[in-house]
Amino acid sequence: IIRYLTASPDGVLVTMPYAIQQLHSGRFFFANFYNAAVGASANIDILLITGTVAPHCAVMADMGAAATLSIYEAVTVSANGSVLSAINANRNSTKAATAATYSGPTVTGTGTTLLLNHYIPGGTTGNAVGGSSTDFARIPEIVLKPSTNYLFRATNLSAGAVGGSMQVGWFEDI
Fold this sequence. Notes:
Elements: E1 2-7, E2 13-17, H1 18-24, E3 28-38, E4 43-49, E5 56-63, E6 67-73, E7 76-79, E8 82-84, E9 87-88, E10 100-103, E11 106-109, E12 112-120, E13 131-132, E14 142-143, E15 149-156, E16 162-171
Antiparallel strand pairs: 1-2, 3-9, 3-16, 4-10, 4-15, 5-13, 5-14, 5-16, 6-12, 6-15, 7-11, 8-10
């Protein structure tokens, strides 16, 4: 959806998707986490604690085997985990995210399930063994609530340890 109009330096009218305009304005952020050895039936967990604005969010997960992706809202934790830096995707901007991200939180309650066990196949070609959730048509952007804890969880379904990663991206109307 084109929702933003602007003029180029030479005066030409330019239209662009709103999410791209947010990136250009320094309001798009991302955090990622990689684990070289996600154990059998183990998780990669990212906790996102939203600030006072409602971020528009999308997630990608990759695993060296079949996996599932789940998203939970209003989770409770006894420890946030390790800080993941929120990186501004416009490297010329000094704006900072109002949301905070962490890897490996100690989850005591998963709250409301938004997406449960979205299946990430174990490969997409004859020689592939890994899978990816990078098809945003299947995992659309979600507008999150302000001042709320969200858990993004990728679970390794294989019987052995495999590499895995997850990236959470969001823009904030700040």
